[in-house]
Write a structure and sequence with these properties.
The chain is mainly beta. It is built from 4 helices and 12 strands. The strands form 2 sheets. A 6-stranded antiparallel beta barrel has the order 1-2-5-4-3-6. A 6-stranded antiparallel barrel has the order 7-8-11-10-9-12. The two termini are 27 Å apart. It comes from Siminovitchia sediminis. Pathway: Cofactor biosynthesis; riboflavin biosynthesis; riboflavin from 2-hydroxy-3-oxobutyl phosphate and 5-amino-6-(D-ribitylamino)uracil: step 2/2. Residues 1-96, 97-193 form the Lumazine-binding domain.
Length: 214
């Protein structure tokens, strides 16, 4: 489990590719301070398992499903990546619940500066529409963000100066893909509604039955 608060920007130093999978080697510092074999690290929002490490790098395997459904396959030597360690049980929870299981990718359509903020329009797949709402949470390349606008197949997010400097998002170009993880709570609610054939409306009785209220 992650929070979507990026700890460090790492650099890809090598990729050992196969047809539909690869092993990635990433240079980092902060996230390696307490690393152990088998630890989970989110790379651009994708939960990967550490299989080897040194003082300045770690290695992880990217499986065919991850290769197919995320933008990691487009990385190359020199690429910058967002990095976050799994959430510590005794730490503060600063973002929102992020699993590291990416739902798919979107495309950067537009970037616009508004005083100290950077607005970004991101095109999302149609199947994502039921899970997004204004002021709702979303993880873009592993970064916890708030949705400020929705129009047809596009969502708008706003990057504060800290996010601009401490993540890779501000450096994205128009047309670049980004990994998207939809809000976990929205997915669970949608799933429960879909499996409830008799009650399609969210009523007080429905919320009590599902444990949301007592």
């Amino acid at each position: 489990m992650f929070t979507g608060i990026i700890e460090e920007i790492g650099t890809v130093i090598r990729i050992d590719r196969k047809a539909k999978s690869f092993t990635i080697h990433i240079q980092a510092h902060t996230i390696l301070e307490d690393v152990r074999l088998g630890d989970s690290i989110a790379v651009n929002g994708v939960c990967l398992t550490v299989t080897d490490f040194s003082r300045s790098m770690f290695q992880a395997d990217v499986m065919p499903e991850t290769f197919k459904s995320t933008s990691l396959r487009l990385l190359s030597s020199g690429s910058k990546v967002n990095l976050e360690r799994a959430m510590a049980a005794n730490g503060r929870f600063g973002g929102h619940f992020v699993s590291g299981h990416v739902d798919g990718t979107g495309l950067v359509l537009n970037k616009k500066r508004m005083e100290n903020a950077l607005y970004m329009d991101i095109q999302i797949p149609e199947v994502f529409h039921p899970y997004v709402m204004e002021k709702g949470s979303i993880a873009i390349d592993g970064t916890s963000l708030t949705i400020f606008g929705i129009e047809k197949d596009t969502i708008t997010i706003s990057l504060v100066p800290h996010t601009q400097s401490e993540t890779i998002l501000a450096e994205k170009n128009l047309g670049d893909p980004v990994n998207i993880e939809l809000d976990m709570l929205a997915k669970y609610v949608r799933r429960m509604l879909g499996s409830n054939q008799e009650k399609q409306e969210i009523t007080m009785d429905f919320l009590t039955e599902k444990g949301f209220i007592k």
